[in-house]
């Protein structure tokens, strides 16, 4: 498992304490995000801030298996519970939150959401390069 933070870099095999601390330390700016990945195209990711709320998405291998939480303003506690569930290999987050297929919607959050999705693609490219 790998935790990628912007800003902050990457952490291999993060513990639950590291994931929690990292999420709670995300700066409240438009470029901040966190991605917890099991492998290429298998991850959960978030962006946002405690004041504005967070968006949350997960992917299970392909674009057709990409889901976004239907709630646009998740709390930090909701995001942390989802990340820790994912880290532990549980699917609690899938039943505790409402999900819909696809990527984030348009609106004021679209620009930074697109940025953090681009980062997810970049992470996939990096892993491909690293594995070759």
Sum this structure up briefly.
With 132 residues, the chain is of the alpha+beta class. It is 36% helix and 30% strand. The chain has one domain.
Total helices: the number is 4
| Average predicted confidence as pLDDT | 84
What's the helical proportion of residues?
25-40%
Class by alpha and beta content: alpha+beta
Number of strand segments: 7
Spatial sequence of strands, sheet with the most strands = 2-1-3-4-5-6-7
How many structural domains in the coordinates? Answer: 1
> Helices and strands, in N-to-C order?
EEHEEEEHHEH
Ends distance: 19 Å
- Please mark out the parts with pLDDT under 50 across 5 or more consecutive residues, or reply none: 106-112
User: If you compute it from the alpha carbons, what radius of gyration comes out, rounded to the nearest whole angstrom?
Assistant: 13 Å
Question: What fraction of the residues are assigned to beta strands by DSSP?
Answer: 25-35%
Given the C-alpha coordinates, what overall shape results? globular
Give a short account of the largest sheet. 7 strands, antiparallel
Question: How does this model look, in words?
Answer:
The protein is α+β, with helices and mostly antiparallel strands. The protein has one domain (2-131). Helix content is 36%, strand content 30%. It is built from 4 helices and 7 strands; from the N terminus they run ββαββββααβα. It has helices at residues 16-24, 76-87, 92-96, 110-131, and strands at residues 2-6, 9-12, 33-39, 42-49, 53-60, 66-69, 99-101. It has a 7-stranded antiparallel sheet, with helices on both faces. A hairpin with a 2-residue loop joins β1 and β2 (9-12). α1 runs antiparallel to α2 (76-87). The longest helix is centred in the C-terminal third of the chain and has 22 residues, at 110-131. Residues 106-112 have low confidence and may be disordered.
